[in-house]
Design brief:
Blueprint lengths: L8 E5 L4 H11 L3 E6 L19 H7 L2 E5 L5 H13 L2 E4 L5 H4 L4 H7 L4 E6 L14 H7 L7 E2 L2 E2 L6 H24 L3 E6 H8 L1 H10 L9 E2 L2 E8 L5 E5 L3 H10 L3 H5 L6 H5 L2 H13 L3 H11 L3 E3 L3 H5 L2 H5 L3 E4 L6 E4 L22 H7 L9
Parallel strand pairs: 1-2, 1-4, 2-3, 4-5, 5-8
Antiparallel strand pairs: 6-7, 9-10, 10-11, 11-12, 13-14
Length: 384
């Protein structure tokens, strides 16, 4: 079956997570993704670990469905190969260190002038201009600068969220904006220059917290397994040694929760009628919910919460997620090929019913170099 991005060619100078995840999703939709890597070393995530039968967990996650061309861009010949690819490419993505693509003569303005139909994406930590534009940026650094770590953890003990939200959020903005630019090009014939800053992404994600600080002057305190913006909303130990996660996201749910935990007195107390009031009484309300949960098993709590229309979950480990029946029963797992044989991978979250995801392999470093050199007309074949 045809895929929505069949015929689209993406070339990427990418490292780590933000650009590779965006381009992998483009490959999932059928785009041809040519990943240009440094000979001998390649993408840094290739070397994080050897968890997946000798391959790195990050690299396997981020790079199946792509072609790997090991090109030394400091050599005129290999830079010429890249320029030949760009002559036929639809999208160019880079998240190299500040100034790296400019030193190669591939600055975004130069590329836009030379290739008017090309969609040029430049991912940076802090954006162009300003006192931070020269700085390297990794997920922890951006989450720290962006205040994300300050609202995670517990008071006095900030923490980085376990999921790299700055990297992944940036990837999702790249992915969605590239799709919009391709659609716009169909109407106008013009490419686009897209500059996405990781700090801008985290700042956007901080929207409600920023509003709270700007308009009230109150800095939110992290609350561990919960939200500083909503209460009660947390994890509570159960009688069978597990942790039930439940709570409220509206005043109406609060009333239902009080009925669930058999505390009509709390429901009738005007001190707790509004979410803003309840966040100030978090300890009292968490104690009430916790006492109810402590005398019941997880199954009893979840059955009762489902019947009452209260959202709930079990606090799972990553191992639990790997074996989650909801993923298994819905066919969310598949195998992709790799240099060491088939490995499991999740189907991409965003697919129309009649689309089939790309199924290309995890590439060895430089696996496609000779083919790409031959295709793009340099006549140079790497030594065997």
């Amino acid at each position: 079956m045809s895929k929505p991005l069949d015929g689209i060619t993406v070339v990427s100078l990418e490292q780590a997570i933000s650009a590779p995840l965006a381009t992998r999703h483009l490959a999932d939709l059928g785009a041809r993704v040519i990943k240009v890597e440094q000979p001998g070393s390649g993408d840094s995530t290739r070397h994080y670990d050897t968890t997946v039968r000798g391959m790195a967990a990050h690299f396997v996650w981020l790079n199946y469905g792509k072609e790997s061309a090991a090109l030394d861009l400091k050599s005129d010949a290999d830079l010429g190969v890249l320029r030949a690819i760009l002559d036929e490419a639809d999208v160019f993505v880079s998240n190299l260190a500040p100034g790296a693509i400019d030193r190669l003569g591939l600055g975004i303005d130069e590329l836009a002038r030379a290739h008017p139909r090309l969609i040029v994406v430049d991912i940076s930590g802090y954006g162009k201009g300003g006192p931070f534009d020269h700085k390297r940026a990794y997920d922890l650094l951006i989450q720290s600068e962006g205040g994300s770590c300050a609202i995670t953890g517990t008071p006095g003990h900030p923490a980085k969220p376990g999921i790299p939200v700055a990297d992944i959020g940036t990837a999702m903005y790249v992915y969605s904006t590239v799709l919009a630019a391709l659609y716009d090009r169909e109407k106008t014939g013009r490419g686009a220059v897209i500059e996405i800053s990781m700090l801008d992404v985290v700042a956007e994600f901080q929207g409600p917290v920023l509003n709270q600080v700007i308009h009230s002057g109150v800095e939110p305190e992290p609350v561990g397994l919960g939200s500083p913006m909503v209460a009660p909303y947390a994890g509570y130990p159960t009688a069978d040694g597990q942790t039930a996660v439940l709570g409220t996201t509206s005043d109406r749910e609060w009333q239902r929760l009080c009925e669930l935990i058999e505390r009509p007195d709390l429901a009738a107390d005007e001190r707790y009628a509004r979410n803003g009031d309840r966040t100030g009484a978090r300890d009292v309300l968490d104690q009430a919910v916790g006492q109810w949960c402590a005398t019941r098993t997880l199954a009893q709590i979840q059955d009762a919460a489902d019947a009452a229309g209260i959202g709930n979950a079990r606090l799972n480990t990553v191992h639990d997620l790997a074996e989650h029946p909801q993923l298994k029963d819905r066919g969310r797992w598949r195998d992709v090929d790799s240099p060491v044989g088939p490995v499991p991978a999740l189907r991409p979250p965003g697919l129309a019913r009649h689309w089939t995801p790309g199924d290309g392999p995890v590439p060895d470093l430089g696996a496609d170099t000779d083919k790409i050199r031959a295709e793009f007309g340099t006549g140079v074949v790497s030594p065997s």
